[in-house]
Amino acid sequence: MATLEINDLHVSVETEGGPAEILRGVNLTVKQGETHAIMGPNGSGKSTLAYSLAGHPKYTVTGGTVTLDGEDVLEMAVDERARAGVFLAMQYPVEVPGVSVSNFLRTAATAVRGEAPKLRTWVKEVKEAMARLEMDPAFAERNVNEGFSGGEKKRHEILQLELLRPKIAILDETDSGLDIDALRTVSEGVNRVRGSGEVGTLLITHYTRILRYINPDHVHVFARGRIVESGGPELAEKLEAEGYEQYVKGGAAE
Ligand SMILES: Nc1ncnc2c1ncn2[C@@H]1O[C@H](COP(=O)(O)OP(=O)(O)OP(=O)(O)O)[C@@H](O)[C@H]1O
């Protein structure tokens, strides 16, 4: 069973005033089949964690380890991480002008699966996945994220998740900007992938409403660059009622 292990992870970004430490000792273990929700105040470092795991060059790991099934993830290039089974659905998906959704997905699937999917079965696979996510088939011929609405971008991220079937899925605020129907559709997509029991999910969110659709096994509070409390789903309810004040008090302004 695939296991992602994050051990005492420290990450910095370069700022005008020099390097700033954003992650200050993150410890987390995510196993295939488990769903972990990460909640925390703005600017606490949640997206930094997501990008660092995916290998964004802007972030420098200054300490700690990340392994997937014992393999050193931090040593891997971005594409190697994807091939190893790490998937990131970004908070702000980027436009890729000139590349159609259909080409993009096939190229990504080829890279991750190690061989090009057979065209006929692939076309069917994409069509069915798009239908499940209630996406207009015309999207397949549009350029990646170009002119997509916020909700359409998020559906496209989940479409990738469904087709690429990673071992570890990191979903960074996949619920933001979704209307109620889209939230349900997107959550159903995540649950389908989860239902396989083959993916470990790290769900970064601000709102408990998505957790009503996607029931997490574990909830973690992220504050000042690390996980400061962990619990079960009841922790999300507590956060909704009490906010984050108790976790940020006395910390650096972030
Ligand atoms: N290039 C950069 N230069 C300066 N500061 C940066 C840079 N990149 C990230 N930061 C800072 O790192 C901190 C953590 O940002 P991050 O986006 O990880 O937080 P977050 O918890 O995901 O926030 P939110 O909930 O608002 O999305 C913020 O204070 C942010 O301003």
Tags for this model:
ATP-binding, binds adenosine-5'-triphosphate, P-loop_NTPase, six-stranded mixed beta sheet, 9 helices, Fe-S cluster assembly ATP-binding protein, Rossmann fold, alpha/beta, 254 residues, single chain
- How big a fraction of the residues is strand? 25-35%
- Please mark out the parts with pLDDT under 50 across 5 or more consecutive residues, or reply none: none
Total count of strands: 12
Query: How far do the termini sit from each other?
Result: 37 Å
- H/E order of the elements? EEEHEEHEEHHEHEHEHEEHH
Keywords: ATP-binding, Nucleotide-binding
Protein name: Fe-S cluster assembly ATP-binding protein
Domain ABC transporter: 4-249
Family: Belongs to the ABC transporter superfamily. Ycf16 family.
Notes on the protein architecture:
- This protein is of the alpha/beta class.
- The chain has one domain: Rossmann fold, CATH 3.40.50.
- The strands form three sheets. It has a six-stranded mixed sheet with strand order 6-9-10-3-11-12, sandwiched between helices. A four-stranded antiparallel sheet has the order 2-1-4-5.
- 36% of the residues lie in helices and 30% in strands.
- Adenosine-5'-triphosphate (ATP) binds next to strand 1, strand 2 and helix 1.
